[in-house]
Fold this protein.
Amino acid sequence: MSQATDPSSRKPRQRQRQRGLENDGGLAVRAAAARALVPVITGKGSLTGLDDHQVVARDRALFKALCYGTCRTLPRLEALAAKLLAKPLKVRDADVQALLLLGIHQLLYLRIPAHAAVGETAGAARLLGKEWATRVLNGCLRRLQREAAALQAEVDKDPAVALLHPKWLLKSLRQAWPDDWRAVCEANNLPGPMTLRVNRRHGDREAYMDRLAAAGIQARLCLHAPDGITLETPCDVQLLPGFAEGDVSVQDEAAQLTSVLLGPALAPRPGARVLDACCAPGGKTGHLLELLDVDVHAVDSDAERLARVEDSLSRLGLAARLEHGDATARDWWDGAPFDAILLDAPCSGSGVIRRHPDIKRLRRPSDIPALATLQAKMLDNLWPLLRPGGTLLYATCSVLPEENSEQIDAFLARTPDAEITTPTDVAWGRPAGAGRQLLPENDSHDGFFYARLKRRPR
């Protein structure tokens, strides 16, 4: 038998090729993460829609951990990078800067052997076509290994670095929540838990807890959302019993309170017309339909995100009237008044930073007044679409008063037929003007604001 056809003669070469692929994989996942981070660190894009299929399946968890973790710790990483580099990198080398940030994050925050964090991060520069950078990255990361404690102590003298938030946001949080701002920052800097919403049309959450236990998935009941379950450890949704059949969805506990607040206004009215303005990605739409026999009109200005609502409802076996439209206009409206309106308004996302850490880099202080203006325009446009006696629920995933309590106070001042019906006898959140504010909590709910208003009958 010739060597070319002898299976035993191929084994060493196969093992060698496999080792090469494994090494390339370590480089490839870091190069892919660097490419994904370039739009964020240059202020030109976000992690929304991050595609983990650009790396092999075994590296997808690491890819996400690298991208999200680096964004979460970016202020400290950038401060350290500035200390480690002899001179700033050029704008065209933002991908090399991203690799340096990724390397620092691995050394300080991830349980990755230092030799891999340094060697494979530096080596990934070759996959970016910048072999010259391997020496620079090696030098910077090896210095960090030697001087980590001293360098961190030096950069952490800046509160914005130590608390991993931009200065303007720290100032806003401190002004809004003088007793809680540090706790908010700490919650923002930790990954949020994975919380589920059980589809009550398919069963109750106690029964679903049993199904999770049978599948070896540990979980606990949410304190405030009656359909909510929080997993002890996040997992792939495909591992959740009955996910494909619509038995359960992923939704934060704070977001699930929407249906709790709208339920009393809609439960006595089968077939009530409900407007879900700014409905994408559809979690609140689905929850309303799971609980209530209502006619939901779901509107969103983003056609691509609206398609996600349709996909979500299809998985749940539910249907709504989907409209591509702008909540500041009425060209999508059929002229019939609504019994209830949910306005989950565009906002800063300051209450969900832990799930979208790139917000800390991409959001600007000038965005807040612009968003407040947009929110006010939506409120004024949608209010006349509500029947007399109907309910409007205003919601944001923000913790900033300009978008929340101050927004609703201003609306009430200019809207004489609006009255407050936000409940005060609930165990969640805290009073905030005419509404209630939830601040993000470690291993619990996100930051959210709700205000419920009723339109006085004529």
In short: Confidence is low (pLDDT under 50) at residues 1-23. The first strand starts at residue 195 and ends at 198. The chain has three domains: 7-161, 195-250, 253-455. The CA atoms of residues 314 and 350 lie 30 Å apart.
